[in-house]
Amino acid sequence: MVMKFVLFLILLVCSGRVSAQYYELNKIQVVDILTGQEVLFELNLMDDIYCIEYSDIYSEGGTSFVFSYGRVSICGNKYYLMDMQSDMDIVLESNKDKSVFKIQKGFSIMQGHEFVYSGDNKDYEDMLNSFVRPYIKSKKSNDFCKLDNDFYQCTPLELGVYENNYISLYLEYDFQYSIKFSVYDFEQTISEGSWCKKGNKLELYDQFADHCFTALIDSCDIKVVDFPNELGSDCRFKKVKSKMLPFIFR
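^ that's the sequence the OP posted. Answer follows.
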């Protein structure tokens, strides 16, 4: 079954009424040979807030979670989606009738693609207001100095795979990283780039986003500070012992 990446946008209209509209991320078609599952990536956007949601609607019991959410700013034909988890901007540029949005900046998986209008749906407005908006109001404080005090000593970094529920971080010995969705036997890279270690701080640079995701290194795990992560999930990524590499970076 062909996997489709679908993005939902809720736009501000002149009448003041917020209508739910969704756009499909074009030119991406991936077949999951192992499971045959169809996976959706949905961007739900209102005039002031948004979220990006992963949905595996055909697996047993279904799987769905939000991994990016935040506030929206509109300037002319540009839409700035300010992610409150990773502290980065996703930038979209619309055509005159807003039927197509070009992606100027975002997660590396979005590079070279655009969103094309596919339909309307009001249900997503209710979902954003009831589920996402409360998290934005109670945004966690990224007090980096306070977190840094918890890991005062410079800790060696063990390379390999770290996991937090459905999201995995891969750290390679050639200073490359990837952030992936890992659901059952299915994996999809959402961000990739280069990593560097500064003391006990880990920086992950995504070139298309032009942004560094940040984490802190503990002896047992990695504690993310600004990082794409599941909404409401723990900030600690645990080592996957069977996937760790025989390399330790000091």
